[in-house]
């Protein structure tokens, strides 16, 4: 089957993820992201409405707002596919169909393979068996202590998480940098189903080593407990005893370290703690950072540059589209250097049905 791929959202910068795949008369949407900033227009939903495009299915990679937060913009009749854990983040009463955490299924006549993406609880990458293979990483990471990353099948087209751009600092260096902040009382807001789980383990060990009080928000504890109920192959080898030990340890009544689910907290809400962010900052938080009101130190939860290239190599991809990152200069020159002729900054691609082609057989609209 041939395919046309249109990056409706998440292209050219951090934003609501939405990739339209049109193949054999079917339309599949990969992710239905919500706005990261108040008042932001969901251009992908606007595009579907303006062109009166009906969808045969929507596949959700994971439960973070920029990948699932726009589901309410879809007609109730559109079938939603996601893993059972991700389904808990759907609007109440929304009907859904199960994707395997690791496996294969049929969606609107298309064979879909899923695997663990190393980023979040219940999160998966998606591989569509059309036109030689289309791989969509969603958000992905090789470095998680908790979540495994599964090697995917070959794919001619790779739509890859490039949230970090050319950044390539190893996780161990990030942890060393965070350690310098532990001498202060810290409040750490995090996505509860993402980096929260592995940060909880690391903070628990550091708190014990430094004799510091630690408190972990109930929702994060609940997610850790949920992780233990899953098949052991859905978490990294050897991590189970550390999770069990952490859950058995009660919260400190007056913690020096507090890990909690992010609800747009500001520095003013934490007068006795230094507010340390470890991921994406909204424009309002960028202003707080510039004013010295909050602190930032990345904890790797996305593919860094060398890992993105390694994944493209593993897939044997002919064309690679870096998603969730700027594609203006000088960034395009960086991607050309890293990916060579595989790199494209085209929003729409047409992939023919034939033998595995060279790059020149692609049509880029």
From TrEMBL:
Family annotation (Gene3D superfamilies): Ribonuclease Z/Hydroxyacylglutathione hydrolase-like (3.60.15.10)
Occurrences of domain Metallo-beta-lactamase (ranges): 15-193
A Pfam family: Lactamase_B_2
InterPro entries noted in UniProt: MBL, Metallo-B-lactamas, RibonucZ/Hydroxyglut_hydro
Superkingdom classification of source: Bacteria
SUPFAM superfamilies, per database record: Metallo-hydrolase/oxidoreductase
Official protein name in the record: MBL fold metallo-hydrolase
Organismal lineage: Bacteria, Pseudomonadati, Pseudomonadota, Gammaproteobacteria, Oceanospirillales
